[in-house]
Amino acid sequence: MLEVRNLSVFYGQHHAVEDASVTVGADEIVVMLGANGAGKSTLIRSIAGLAPARPGCSIRMDGEEIAALPPHEIVEKGIALVPEDRGIFGDLTVDENLTLGAFPDRARGAEAANRERIYALFPVLKERRRQAVRTMSGGEQQMVAIGRAIMSAPSILLLDEPSLGLSPLLCRDLFRALAEIRTQGVGIFLVEQNSKQSLAIADRGYLLENGHVVGADSAANLLADEAVSRSYLGAGEA
Amino acid sequence: MDILILGILLGGSYALMALGLQLQYGVARIMNLANGEVLVAGSFGAFWFWTGLKLSPFLSIVPAALLAFAANWLVYRYVLRPLVRRAKSHGQLEVDSILATFGMSFILVGVMIAVFGGEYFSYSYLARPFEIFGQPYGLNRIVAFGGSAVLCIVLALWLTRSRTGLALRGVAVNPTAAGLVGIDVLKASALAFALGGAVTATGGALLSAFLTFDASLGVIFTMKALIIIIFGGVSDIRGAIVASFILGIVESAVARLIDPGLTLAAAYILFIAVLLWRPQGLFGRKSA
Ligand SMILES: Nc1ncnc2c1ncn2[C@@H]1O[C@H](COP(=O)(O)OP(=O)(O)OP(=O)(O)O)[C@@H](O)[C@H]1O
Ligand SMILES: [Mg+2]
After folding, report:
1. Do B173 and A76 count as a contact with CB atoms less than 8 A apart?
2. CB within 8 A of A197, min separation 6: which ones?
3. Is the pLDDT of residue A99 over 90?
4. Contact across the interface for A50 and B174, Cβ inside 8 Å
5. What is the pTM of this model?
6. How far is C-alpha B59 from the geometric centre of its chain's CA atoms?
7. Nearest to A103 among B169, B182, B285 (CB)
8. A223 contacts: CB under 8 Å, gap ≥ 6
């Protein structure tokens, strides 16, 4: 269980995230919706140790304080991030990316099993195992990114706009894969700009505006809410 | 033909020095302008082993590598790491590390002049002819080439096959992602920097078997290593090795066909040609 309490992140004088509290359980899918510049990336990067939280904020993983740890120690606590730019090793092959994903001590024992899991989830990666990742399509790269994160044997998987740049069809496959990963006991926290599809697979959702959490509800209620649809899910379709 | 063979023999030792700089620049992201001085220090080590201790200069490789590893690790840990921590951007780190290591190169030159003096050094070891395709070549050149070929292969295998080697390549390609998969990037950088120094010093010991050197020769080797890694790619082992051979062959061709004094000029011309026509390196987009 991941518990973020009163998280604030400043860039100089600019408050990118202020006083945000979020929890993600071990077997839930939680979505955070917010517009461009709302602070979604900042919040998720700060959980992974890439953006320094203000002193006094609390980020706990299964009760243990992790707010001041560097990224390589946070992975060891069971939190893996797929960042907005995917965080893959472009010059290395698919297989090498997955092997590096299993670099944390906690992941070594289950390396072979996790690799099989990923190949079962994304068969195309098995066919392309010797290909340099930067030569792959955007959708395939996103699969490598998620695979790399799962290789770290996380309890909580963080994803920053995983559907960015994917076709609707690929998006559907991606969210199906995420739902599948959750059934294997991994909690998932994803931030998205405007994705009905993400709410459709989620249990709960948060709304982020100008760095503040302005709403929290079950995914079903958020989907049904007119105002939420208008501001977060694209008014044009509603 | 013998130009080709001489060039390949020379290129073998260049490859070692280039791999050393690649580890330091590609992985640790320190443009080490004192790289050539570390190489010359390795040459002095070999010289001293042979003339002072009466031991084979090739034996000096082991203590030279260990010493260079330790010294480079300390330099990274106590001089360069504060710069890495402070740097707000890659560009700033580049400028800071160039200035810091440029300063260090002067210190090293000064120390070597103080210890050994400023004259030219060479020694004669295994200076027997050895025939390849009916042409005689110095046995010392051939043994030096063999030594560096073995080391290059071992290093390349380690970097591609071992978990730690893969981690270093991961840091070279994407340091942020490396942190996210649990690699301690500062530790990995210190290891790469130290290892790069050790490899370079080894290259210096091998080169000294057939090259005359002096305390201030380092800067020329730094330049050559730079030319090679820009030519071959900052994080591409294969590219660096091919580029080393090309530089070795060009240099021996110019020395033989035109004038030995022009080898450095030829290297620069090669360098500028590469910058103009193939700035991304031999094998395409390879830098991180
Ligand atoms: N490194 C930085 N330095 C200064 N300001 C930053 C930095 N990174 C982000 N910001 C600012 O913080 C705010 C939040 O940015 P963030 O990237 O978290 O938004 P986001 O919700 O992820 O947006 P998007 O949907 O476009 O990805 C923005 O106003 C942005 O300009
Ligand atoms: Mg973002």
Report:
1. no
2. A163, A171, A172, A175
3. yes
4. no
5. 0.89
6. 19
7. B182
8. A196, A199, A200, A229
